[in-house]
Each structure stands twice: as C-alpha cells, then as structure tokens.
Amino acid sequence: MATFDAPSREVCTIRRPRTNTPLQALVTMNDPAYVEAAQALARRMVREGGATTADRAVRGFRLVLARQPVAAEVDRLVKLHDDARAEYAAAPGDAKNMATDPLGPPSADLPADLADLAAWTVVANVILNLDEAFMCP
Amino acid sequence: MDPILAAKVLATRRHLLGSMAGGIGAIAMHDLLAATASAPQPAVTGDPMAPKLPPLLAKAKRMIVIHLTGSPPHLDLYDHKPELVKHDGQDCPAETIAGKKFAFTSGTPKLLGTPRKWTKCGESGMELSDAIPNLHRVADKLCLVRSMFTDQFNHAPAELMVYTGSPRAGRPSLGSWVTYGLGTENANLPGFVTLISSGVQPNGGTTSFGSGFLPSVYQGVQCRSKGDPVLYVSDPPGMNRAMRRKTLDALKDLNELQARQLGNPETVTRIAQYELAFRMQASVPDVMDISKEPQAVLDAYGAKPGQSSLANNCLLARRLVEQGVRFVHLFDWGWDFHGTNPNEDIRDGLTKKAATFDKPAAALIEDLETRGLLKDTLVLCTGEFGRTPFREGRTAAGSILGRDHYPDCYSIWMAGGGVKPGYVHGASDDLGFKVASDMVHIHDLQATILHLLGFDHTKLTYRFQGRDFRLTDVHGHVVNQILA
C-alpha cells in the first residue's frame, strides 16, 4: 500500500498525498489482483453487454465510470478489442493465459471463445487503468 | 454529432459539480493570488523526480551507502589500539564504564585487545587490519573517520538515527531527502534504489529507506535479486510487449480525450507515468541483469549472477549509478559480532564475513574510479554504531571472542565525491572508549553528506505538522576538515 501513499502504521496522516508514480502504474497494469479483476469485468461485459462489440464496450465503460462513453471512446475500445481479438486468435496459448490466469476457466453460460475473452480482458485492463477510473474528475 | 459536444450533452452530475468546483475555486484563487502574489506556490504538476540543481556547488552528484547491519567490530577492522592489546584480559578501568549501560554487559567486563594483524597501507599509511586485505589496496582513496559517536546503543533506533536523523520511526530517510532535493537523472529507472543481501531486512525496517512524510515518490524502491526486480514489472501471462504497447496506446488516446475535455494536468501526468512504467519494464530488468558483465568484472567483485550477495549488490550499485540513479542504499546483515556463535567471533568469524564485504567494496571503489565516476559519487560505509573495547558480558566465559554494542566512539569510512582521500579524521583514546579528538556526531555526518551533495542542511526542509523538518533536526555541523 505504500506505493499508493498509505502511511505505514508507524505514522499517521490526516491528508494522504496524491502521487502518481510509475510504480503505481505497474501495480494496476500487472498485479494479478488487477488482472483477475479485468478478467471478471471482461466476462460481465460479454454476459451483460448485448450482442455487438460496441454494446459490450459500453457496458464495461459504464460499469467502471458510471457514465455513457462518447462515440470516440467506444470506437477506440472497439478497435483495441478487434486488434487484440485477431492477435489472440493466432496465439491460443496466450489467449488462454490472458483470459483465465488467475481467474480460472469461464462458466458454461459464456462463449468458449478464449481469444475473444482475452481481448475483452485487455479492454477491461485499459478501462480499469483510465485516469478517470482512479480520480473522479 | 461532434464527440466533444456529445460528451458535454452527456455530462453527468459528477462532471458538472467537478467543473463548477474548479470554476468557483478559480475565482477564489484569483483573490488569494492577488493577496499573496509574491508567495511561492507549491508545484502541483510536473515530474517530482525531474533532475534539479542543488543550491550550492556540489562535489558529489550521487551516493552509494553500504550499510553493515548489526555494526562491524571497528576495533578489529579500522582502529588499532596497541594499549588495549597490552591490557587484554584486564578489568575495564572504573572510569571507562562508570554510570554507563550496555546492551548485554553488566558488572566490570574484561578489556579485549584485537587479535588481528595490522598493516600501514598505501602512501597515507592508513592502518587497517588483516580482516580486510582488499581494502588495503584502496586505502589511499578512503576517508576514514575514527571519531564517530551516536546517541543510541540498540540496533533499530541507532540505524534510524543514521538514516533519518531520529531514533524514532516516521522521518524521511537520507536517500529520500537526497532525491527530494536533486530528483534523478534517468527517467527510466527509480531515483532511489535499495538492495538487501544476507536475507534479512534492515533493523529499522523499511523506515530506513522510506520517505516518511515526504511524498512517497521519494521512497527507496527495493529491487530484488530473484524474480521481478521491481514488483509487477513483468507483464501478466498472455500479455506480450506488442500487446502491452497497444493497450497503452489505447489508454493514452482515451486519457487524452479526457484531458482535452477537462483540462486536468494530473491526467497528463498519468499518461507520462504510464509511459515511464512501460520503459521501466524494459530498463529495470536490463540494469539488474549482471550476467551481461564481463567475467573479469564479475570476478573482481566476486559476483555470481542469480545469487543474493553483497558482491552482486555492489556491482549492481555501480550499474545503477552509472545509469543515472541518484541514490543506492545497500544493506548487508550479519555484522553483530557479540560472540554468541562462531560466525560472530572476531577471529575466524570476522575473517569469513569480512571476505564477503571487503573484496566487493574495494572492487566498487576501483570500478567507479576506472569509469570516472568516483570523483562525483560519494560512497559511505558504516554500521549503526561501534563495538565495545571489552568482551561482551554473556559470552565472556566462553571461547568465542565477541564485543557488545558501543555508541561512544567508532569508525566509518567514505570515498569519492569530495572527501579527502587517504585521510584519517579524528582519533579514539588509548583504550578506544572515548573520542580523543575531532568528534563527529551522526548529525555532523549528515550535514557533511548534504554539503557534499550541494545542500545547506539547515535549508533542505519539508513542512509537516506545522513546522519545517530537516534531516539533521536542529543539530549538525559540516566537518570541514574531511572535505577535499
């Protein structure tokens, strides 16, 4: 927690400084807890978002940021999804890792397409790392 | 519809209140600024680690600390006391122990003369013991202080005293003060790196390299010798570098949309920090990989890739400062020579332990010099305190020779970065109980270190809890005699 300015228990503070360090970025991009959260969010996007890629992107965006994305935001997420989907389709091993490590295999009600879930995990990882997700504007 | 306009149409209550708060704040700020136009404003944006010039002329640009956790027996390494040898085994004179308390000794202990052999080294004739033969080679580059003293006689408070200026936890450490004052030169690496060998954390815990009440960006980043050198520096399974780049491009585009809409400079900072994190993912594992060093260099340090050792860490320290890291803090556990087991015997035990230290320490000084770095890199080697001129109480009846903790007089050395080479400062008295000349307190040492790095130690401050704090609290005098 020290990476996120929590005081160690040896001292107290009435105001946590707000820092913005690369070490924090490494945690929120790569910590297994964050990856697991992205995998879970990806599954909700697929399960709850509707049929189209755009609808699913919107669902993830609203779940995290509690607002409707603008068209440019949806387009950017859809583009990332489609790029990632194509790459993971050609790399099944990576797709399996990205989609299931550490959360585990998806439940039966989800499509068995791991490349797609991996791509959504990548999208979810981005949404969870948006500045707006950390700092309320 | 224009996406920006669309965003405005879809603005939520949060946006509205957020922008209103900014608007109202800006109006209030206008008045406040008018009232205090000359008052310096705290910088809220920009990189806190950007390199800064110190206010005074600096002799040292960066620093490496080798901390020997537990405190080495200075009377068997650095300070030869023939009188103590002459009176070995006799009771301590009453005046030397009157009214004093020791960690593990009571009653009247027996004087312990060193069993080590001594050599006058180099042109300076600096006398060093046979436990550290490799340091003999670099004696003419060392600045040895034989007149150190501190206030604390137990490990944790004494270690905190050395590195935070206070025996109680909570203050910023030396490395965090230095990076707070100077920033760092390589934006792809942490500015303050801590490396720990012998598998045991410092006595002062992470506070010994923490940032206390300074912003956490100045805390020492502990790099590890196995696995990820920095926590989560590796991408998760299934994410390759190309894919990480794509996610960061998307993140950057989305954050930029946000920044254009709301104009929050912190968003811009965050974009920059993610880009730095991406670069660190490549540069940190690279600088931490000593297997790329030529075999001759590995041999000089006694370093072996993949191990956790002081030798590896000394080599890493050189690699890090060479890459522009401002402050490298090494901790090596295992120097608490009480004599409670054969490893803590000042004869064979010390010979073995010192061999893991003096070879890489000497190699570090020579390596820094070869690369032209020694002239502006300050190296400090110290423990928390010294060790007694008498045998430790608990082990006095056994066959193993050990010494108790001793704060009143001990030795440390520095090298490079503006200190006098081949110079001995101060002296202990004949039996080594007291400083005989040129006393140097911990706060004096800190004031001197900051001076070498270009700071007036009374002016490098940070306001906290209603007052300006500094490393030396309200004490400390620069030791001018040791300046080159």
What are the key terms here?
heterodimer; A: 137 residues; mainly alpha; B: 484 residues; alpha/beta; 9-stranded mixed sheet; two-stranded antiparallel ribbon; 16% strand
Describe the structure.
The complex is a heterodimer of chains A (137) and B (484). Chain A is mainly α and 137 residues long. Chain A has seven helices and no strands. The model of chain A has no long low-confidence stretch (mean pLDDT 91). Chain B is an alpha/beta fold and 484 residues long. Helices cover 33% and strands 16% of the residues of chain B. Chain B has 13 helices and 17 strands. Chain B has helices at 3-9, 13-35, 82-86, 94-97, 133-137, 155-164, 174-182, 241-262, 265-287, 295-301, 310-322, 348-370, 442-452; strands spanning 62-69, 118-121, 126-129, 142-149, 192-197, 221-222, 327-333, 377-382, 386-391, 403-406, 410-416, 423-425, 427-428, 435-437, 440-441, 462-464, 467-469. In chain B, strands 1, 4, 5, 6, 7, 8, 11, 12 and 15 form a nine-stranded mixed β-sheet that branches. In chain B, strands 2-3 form a two-stranded antiparallel sheet. In chain B, helix 11 runs parallel beside helix 12. The model of chain B is unreliable at 9-45 (pLDDT under 50). Chains A and B meet through helix 1, helix 4, helix 5, helix 6 and helix 7 of A and helix 1, helix 2, helix 8 and helix 9 of B.
| Rg over C-alpha atoms of chain A, rounded to the nearest angstrom | 16 Å
What global shape of chain A is seen?
globular
Residue runs with pLDDT of under 50 for 5 or more positions of chain A: none
Q: Which secondary-structure class do the elements of chain A indicate?
A: mainly alpha
Mean pLDDT of chain B: 90
Low-confidence stretches of chain B: 9-45
Helix and strand sequence of chain A: HHHHHHH
Determine the fraction of residues in helical runs of chain B and give it as a percent range. Answer: 25-40%
How do you describe this structure in short?
The complex is a heterodimer of chains A (137) and B (484). With 137 residues, chain A is an all-alpha fold.
